[in-house]
C-alpha cells in the first residue's frame, strides 16, 4: 500500500520529551496528493512542536467538519475556499500544488485548457474544488463519491473523460491495475497552488504556520520533501 512507502516520515513528527499540542485536520480519503500534503504539513508543524492527526472523509464531508470547527482545518484546498467557507482561514504561502489532468480510455487529443473537454461527458470527485470550479457550467458532469469509484466508472465507459490531479490519478489507476487501459492526456489542465486552512478559532496560529512554510520553501526543504514523497509513492509496489 502506498502509505507504507513513506512510513519513515513519521520520524519527522516524533514526539519530543515535552508534551505536544495537537491539531486535527480533515483529509480527503484515498487521494494520494492529500496524503503528500499531510506529510508535508506534519514536517511543518513538527517545527512548532505540534502533533497532527487526520480525519479521512469524503471531500464534502471534510468541508462540513472543518468549517463547523469539528476538526481544526483542512490539509490543502484551492485559494478561493474562504469565499465560500469564511470560518476557514488561509495560511500563506501555498503548501503544495496540483496539476489537474484529463484521463481517458480511448480519446487522443492535445489538452488546451478546460474548454477543450467541454463537449465530452466528464467525471469529477465531489468536493474537489479545482475540478468543480473548472467544470462549472459544463453540461455533462458526473460528481462521484471518491477517486476510486470515478476510475471504475471511467473503466465502465460511464463517461468519456475524468479529471483529477495528475499524481493522484496515476497512483490510483495503478492501484486498481488499470494503467494499460486508462491514461492521462497531455498537457495537464494547469498548475494550481493550494493552501492549508485552519478554523478561525486558530487564527493566532496562522502566521506562525505560514512563517515556517515560508522558511521551508526558501530553503528548498519543502520542495525536496514533496519530490521524495511523490517518487516513493509512485515507485511503491
TrEMBL record:
Q: Signal sequence: where?
A: 1-19
Question: Which residues fall in a coiled-coil region?
Answer: none
Does the UniProt entry include the keyword Mitochondrion?
Answer: no
Mind listing the UniProt keywords for this protein, alphabetically?
Signal
Record keyword Magnesium present:
no
The protein in question is named ABC-type amino acid transport substrate-binding protein
Naturally occurring in which organism (per UniProt): Bradyrhizobium huanghuaihaiense
Amino acid at each position: 500500500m502506498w502509505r507504507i512507502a513513506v512510513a519513515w516520515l513519521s520520524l519527522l513528527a516524533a514526539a519530543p520529551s515535552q508534551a505536544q499540542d495537537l491539531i486535527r485536520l480533515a483529509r480527503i480519503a484515498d487521494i494520494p496528493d492529500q496524503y503528500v500534503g499531510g506529510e508535508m504539513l506534519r514536517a511543518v508543524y513538527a517545527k512548532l512542536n505540534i502533533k497532527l492527526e487526520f480525519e479521512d472523509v469524503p471531500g464534502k464531508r471534510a468541508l462540513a467538519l472543518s468549517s463547523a470547527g469539528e476538526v481544526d482545518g483542512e490539509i490543502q484546498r484551492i485559494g478561493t475556499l474562504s469565499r465560500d467557507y469564511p470560518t476557514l482561514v488561509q495560511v500563506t504561502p501555498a503548501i503544495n500544488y496540483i496539476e489537474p489532468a484529463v484521463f481517458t480510455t480511448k480519446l487522443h487529443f492535445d489538452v488546451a485548457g478546460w474548454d477543450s473537454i467541454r463537449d465530452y461527458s466528464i467525471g469529477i470527485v465531489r468536493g474537489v474544488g479545482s475540478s468543480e470550479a473548472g467544470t462549472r457550467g459544463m453540461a455533462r458532469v458526473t460528481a462521484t463519491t471518491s477517486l476510486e469509484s470515478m476510475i471504475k466508472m471511467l473503466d465502465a465507459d460511464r463517461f468519456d473523460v475524468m479529471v483529477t490531479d495528475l499524481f493522484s490519478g496515476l497512483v490510483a489507476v495503478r492501484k486498481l491495475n488499470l494503467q494499460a487501459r486508462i491514461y492521462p492526456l497531455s498537457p495537464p489542465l494547469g498548475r494550481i497552488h493550494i493552501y492549508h486552512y485552519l478554523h478561525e478559532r486558530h487564527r493566532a496560529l496562522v502566521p506562525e504556520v505560514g512563517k515556517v512554510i515560508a522558511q521551508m520553501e526558501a530553503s528548498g526543504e519543502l520542495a525536496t520533501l514533496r519530490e521524495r514523497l511523490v517518487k516513493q509513492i509512485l515507485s511503491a509496489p
